[in-house]
Specification:
By secondary structure, this protein is of the alpha+beta class. It has 2 helices and 5 strands. The radius of gyration is 15 Å and the shape is globular.
């Protein structure tokens, strides 16, 4: 077995436990084709960084592992007092497709809401 090269850092692991539908609505990113989530964090990330997310959904004991990529960054002290963090895009695979469907099933009619979110 070969060791990973030192220039390729291992993806960071973030555990995100979303306990309420309102929090899931605020974090979910339906604009990404394969789905995605906003993760509040003070850690510095760059676009394209690999992030391994262990996602827990409301009323669901299962944790969903997602090997995502940073698709946008909301810096500290951003305009409109937005929460600092990163938008993680789910990969194009079957697990992500099923996770996206699960999230949208939980959110149901909330997806059409005009309520503000932490996302774009």
């Amino acid at each position: 077995m070969s060791n990973p090269s030192p220039t390729t850092p291992r993806p960071s692991v973030i555990q995100l436990a979303i306990k309420e539908k309102a929090a899931l609505y605020a974090a979910y990113i339906p604009l990404f084709t394969d789905g995605g989530v906003f993760i509040p964090t003070t850690r510095d990330y760059k676009l394209g960084d690999d992030v391994y997310v262990l996602l827990s959904l409301p009323e669901d004991p299962q944790r969903y592992p997602v090997a995502g990529k940073v698709a946008w960054v909301t810096p500290a002290r951003s305009a409109a007092n937005r929460t600092q963090g990163v938008g993680i895009r789910f990969p194009s695979d079957e697990k992500s497709r099923l996770l996206k469907l699960k999230i949208e099933e939980i959110l149901g009619g909330h997806l059409a809401s005009e309520r503000p979110t932490q996302t774009i």
